[in-house]
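Dear colleague,

Thank you for sharing your sequence with our group. We've completed the structure prediction you requested, and as agreed, I am returning the results in plain text so they can be pasted directly into your records. Please verify that the sequence below matches your submission; if there's any discrepancy, let me know and we will rerun it promptly.
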Amino acid sequence: MNLKKKFITLLQNKNSLQEERIQALFQLMNIGDKESLEAIIKTLENDPCEIVRHEAAFVLGETAAYEHRENLRKAIISDPSGIVKHEAILALGTIANEEDIPFLEEQKQSKVKLISESAKIALQRIKNIEKPYRGPEQFSHLKT
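Please find the predicted structure tokens below.
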């Protein structure tokens, strides 16, 4: 079994330790291909552990997964965990696409302080960079 398959299998095995699944997320982030990103998204959407889902959101932001911004927005709207929502909001800020500003402005109005403050930080990230989108080409060093 190649390493990527090993990490995907480990990530999807709910009997694996949470720390092992988190480490698998980071290994898949380093691989950064389509299959790895799909496994990360599946984890964001379905993992029973909120800490693991939180780390999946973080990894998507760090890989500048522009094409998966909708998955992050979906997590912000529907995930039951505040820390997952928080990290998904920050991930949108890290990806820094101006198209997400209206959505983040809505989140900034949340009565939940964790959400509104996370949105403020994400908006600051977007507005304080020179280019509105840090694309995958800037993260090509992560691809193996």
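Summary note from our side: The longest helix spans residues 113-127.

Kind regards,
the structure core
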